[in-house]
Amino acid sequence: MPRVFSGIQPTGEPHIGNYFGAMRNYVALGEQYGKNSIYCVVDLHAPTNPAAFDPALLAARTLDMAVANFAAGLDPQKVIFFVQSHVREHAELGWLFTLLTPVGELERMTQYKDKAQKLESTPAGLLMYPVLQAADILLYKADTVPVGEDQVQHIELTREIARKFNHAYGETFPEPRAVLAEGALRIPGVDGQGKMSKSKGEASTLGILEPLESIWQKLRVAPTDPARVRRTDPGDPDKCLVGDYHKLFSDAETVAEVYAGCRTAGIGCVDCKKKLMVGIGAHLGPIQERAAALQADPDYVRDALAQGAREARAIAQPIMEEARERVGFLRL
After folding, report:
1. Cβ pair 5, 174 in contact under 8 A
2. Is 141 designated active site?
3. How many CA atoms lie within 13 A of 182 on its CB side?
4. Does pTM surpass 0.85?
5. Contact yes or no for 205/187 (Cβ under 8 A)
6. Do the domain assignments include residue 137?
7. What is the pLDDT of residues 3-23, one digit of tens each?
8. How far is 89 from 107, CA to CA, in rounded Å?
9. Looking at residue 225, what DSSP letter applies?
């Protein structure tokens, strides 16, 4: 049976991009593969990008990310779900992999180049981010990695690191494959400035645990097709982020109605957004209710994370010991 691994960063509020791009896929794969599905909140990765990291909020955001995943349907009794820093072998294997990875390959990573150009001083951790990501995956000998399309390059590097280790020290790690969520959209930020991202701040995101009134206030002023200058101007819903959101939250009948209405100026942008809010409320309402119940019982969430860490360590420790022996470290 395949072994699945994926991680999600706690650098901001979990948003609909996380939900449609990752969380729903986690749930589906968890139902299929059970405890061979391993997921974690990758808190060791959070400080690698100082532009998006706040140490005062890290612990709370880590718990929030766990709550969001559980509320979205991930059952910690069926899968392994834990916090990355609670399994120290992640960092140790990451160090071994840095010894095999050329700096030039890391400097070619698209995400590194995008983030580094926004910083006055680039921390080495940002450069090494994909090496630690490779360790996250290979520490469990995972062969299946659900990711967004922007992470595929990192999975290719993980495959290369596995090949390098196996060539240098003997066959140890599989070469994992990236699995993209079927039909997943590249979800635009509500500010209209590219992809929705926690690193861009709350102005870009619609949080899955965010109060519906707050979501409405963001949607109310969200940009639409610039061709619709006046209410009577027809528009193109395929060029409008609200149109993209309708594909996520609205039923087929509503999507057809608002798309036709936009193209003929039969519906205004505000009314289109109000119809979208109906779908958002129906979709996120139950998730937010489950999240509220989990937030009222923080001991359950912490116990679930502790259980997940124990289960993860039971897999990680012997694999790390195997890697140590391959490299030649002294055993006591």
Report:
1. no
2. no
3. 2
4. yes
5. no
6. yes
7. 999 999 998 889 998 898 889
8. 25
9. -
